[in-house]
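BACKBONE GEOMETRY TOKENS:
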Amino acid sequence: RLPLEANHTSKGFRIAGYKGQFGFITSMTQSFCSDCNRVRVMADGNLKVCLFGNTEVSLRDLMRRGASDAEIVETISQAIKRKKRAHAGMDILSQMPNRPMIKIGG
């Protein structure tokens, strides 16, 4: 097993004698939400602070209406501050409206 790095979302492994490494993202069994420092700006200009969350903030609309850099930074900051400590369990997640991963990108 490779050492865990700060804010890493996967647990990395390397097999002695082989090239490369691989990892597991164990977001359902061992939540790392409270340490996650990742956000995603999608192709349509929406900011998503959690891939499992259904909340998005439109940065595109802010920019189109001429928001200042300070307003955009504040909007991003507020979205990150509202980020939950942990996502819902799988039984609840499967019932929540959310974009499928193929539409989120990555």
